[in-house]
Design goal:
The chain has 104 residues and is mainly beta. It contains one helix and eight strands; from the N terminus they run H-E-E-E-E-E-E-E-E. The protein has a single domain (21-103), classed as Cupredoxins -  blue copper proteins (Immunoglobulin-like), CATH 2.60.40.420. The protein is 10% helix and 39% strand. A hairpin with a 2-residue loop joins strand 1 (24-30) and strand 2. 18% of the residues are buried.
Length: 104
C-alpha cells in the first residue's frame, strides 16, 4: 500500500501558509525626469525611486506625507502607500521634476 503523502489538510496548510509577496513598483530618476511620471498601484504597494542621474535628487510629496534626503547616483528611497488616493511629488532641488502616484 502506498501512503497518502498529500492529504487535503496538508495541501490547505501549504497553500495558505505561504505568505503573499508585497507589491512593489520602481520609478527611475534619469535625465532630470521621473520615469514613469505617473503610476497606478494597489494600496499596500511599496514604491522605490532610484536616482540614475549624476546629480542629486529628492522625492518630496506635495502634501507632506513623505520626504527623502538628497539621493546621490544609485541611491534609493522607498515608501509604502497604504491608503487610496492621488499623491503628487516633486524633486525639491529640480522643481520641474514632478510625478504622481494613484493608489487604488
Amino acid at each position: 500500500m502506498i501512503p497518502r503523502l498529500l492529504t487535503p489538510a496538508l495541501i490547505a496548510t501549504v497553500v495558505f501558509a505561504t505568505p503573499a509577496l508585497a507589491d512593489e513598483t520602481s520609478i527611475v530618476m534619469k535625465n532630470f525626469d521621473f520615469t514613469p511620471m505617473a503610476s497606478t498601484v494597489a494600496a499596500g504597494t511599496t514604491v522605490t525611486w532610484k536616482n540614475e542621474d549624476g546629480e542629486p535628487h529628492t522625492v518630496v510629496s506635495t502634501d507632506g506625507l513623505f520626504r527623502s534626503a538628497a539621493l546621490d547616483e544609485n541611491d534609493t528611497f522607498k515608501f509604502t502607500f497604504t491608503k487610496p488616493g492621488t499623491y503628487k511629488y516633486v524633486c525639491s532641488i529640480h522643481p520641474k521634476m514632478v510625478g504622481t502616484i494613484m493608489v487604488k
